[in-house]
DNA sequence: CTTTTATGAATGAAGG
DNA sequence: CCTTCATTCATAAAAG
């Protein structure tokens, strides 16, 4: 795996992780037509992985501390560096560049929204929406409509996932053995708040102190 | 949000068995003498692992950036974070940590889908989707979501092409940077910078030199 | 191997 | 609430 290689070639760039991972997959046959794949790691690789993660955890903790010390006596409200316009850089085809046209929650906003959502109440009432919007506006552009839509969509998503995860259908398919096709998305909700979008520094906020405990699965 | 990924591979038939192995998630063997020990992970776990690591990498990068912006802010009031790019799936070295797999229609599946699409009916109804999925599953792994997405994307593509072949009026509109903050009750017009690039500054001054060295280990 | 393109997937917003 | 559409992102596949 990449980790193993990294140790030996610190400056080598790997742009095809996927392929490497694939190569690391062992294939097993069951002898009756089907095969199954599993990812295999050696003890050494597992050990390296643990160390890597451990290092990240430590670094994160210390960076958080550093952040605290740096911000304890500063007014972050003035650090309005977010929402900068960025060129998509589509120079190759000379495409036009246009501004974003739809709202994208910042990580903090998302985290807050998720937390509210998880509290179980359905779509917030109008006054509640106003309140939430007000709170979230401290972390970036947002409107009541955004909040409303977010809850609508989040609910739908949640619902769909439940249907997929709970396909109360017995797998007693008669005739042929239709290899279970519906292996729908398995969203992992038990993980970190969305990190898929850019977050500006001021939006980085660890309201979740269990950073280091999320890797329980490796221990 | 985003970490909801599909888990689509080619070993569904033995999913359960794998899960069982997972439970132990620590021992693997060849079953005949145990000559070699290996760690076995399912794709799902691998995916989780990747994301966990990805998250750490992202957090670290963001914290570093935040640190930079905060420290520089003390000097230059108007300083700006350049085109910050923070792809959560990439480390500062452009090293992809997280990978995800996605469905790819087999030629036969594609042919069938195209044929259905050409028959003109719009987005198939749910039961129809099930039917199609069922049919296509005989030609390879596929899920209802895949089918649904395919039709959505196929139509969008079709539409786009039509616009191209139908060169209506010229519209050499200059992209304006003006942004009207989408406020309550109006169509959102906000913009948010998105993916850009981030680099782990080598010159970052860690309070604890140990961090720096350990980071290096990760690169 | 690196870059570009095609397209699967995620999700904000709109309409009913 | 549900469905549909538009836009964006990430990546498999193709090109260089």
From TrEMBL, chains A, B:
Higher taxonomy: Eukaryota, Viridiplantae, Streptophyta, Embryophyta, Tracheophyta
Range covered out of full length: 1 to 219 of 276
Species, as recorded: Vitis rotundifolia
Region entry Disordered, spans: 1-26, 159-189
Record localization: Nucleus
Main localization (coarse): nucleus
Record keyword DNA-binding present: yes
Gene Ontology annotations for the cellular component aspect, listed alphabetically: nucleus
GO molecular function, one term: DNA binding
Identification of the protein by name: Homeobox domain-containing protein
UniProt keyword annotations, A-Z: DNA-binding, Homeobox, Nucleus
Homeobox domain boundaries: 96-161
DNA-binding region(s) in UniProt: 98-162
Signal peptide limits: none
């Amino acid at each position: 795996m990449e980790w193993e290689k990294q140790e030996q070639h610190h400056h080598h760039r790997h742009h095809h992780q996927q392929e490497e991972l694939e190569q690391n997959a062992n294939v097993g046959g069951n002898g009756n037509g089907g095969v199954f794949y599993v990812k295999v790691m050696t003890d050494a690789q597992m050990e390296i992985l643990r160390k890597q993660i451990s290092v990240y955890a430590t670094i994160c903790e210390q960076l958080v501390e550093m952040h605290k010390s740096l911000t304890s006596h500063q007014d972050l409200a003035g650090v309005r560096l977010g929402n900068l316009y960025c060129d998509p850089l589509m120079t190759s085809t000379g495409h036009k560049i246009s501004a974003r046209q739809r709202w994208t929650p910042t990580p903090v906003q998302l985290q807050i929204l998720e937390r509210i959502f998880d509290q179980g109440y359905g779509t917030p009432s109008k006054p509640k929406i106003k309140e939430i919007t007000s709170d979230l506006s401290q972390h970036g552009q947002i409107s009541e409509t955004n909040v409303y839509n977010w809850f609508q969509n989040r609910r739908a998503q949640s619902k769909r996932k439940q249907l997929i995860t709970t396909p109360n259908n017995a797998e007693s398919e008669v005739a042929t053995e239709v290899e279970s096709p519906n292996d729908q998305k398995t969203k992992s909700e038990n993980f970190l708040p969305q990190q898929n979008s850019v977050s500006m520094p001021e939006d980085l906020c660890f309201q979740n102190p269990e950073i280091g405990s999320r890797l329980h699965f490796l221990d």
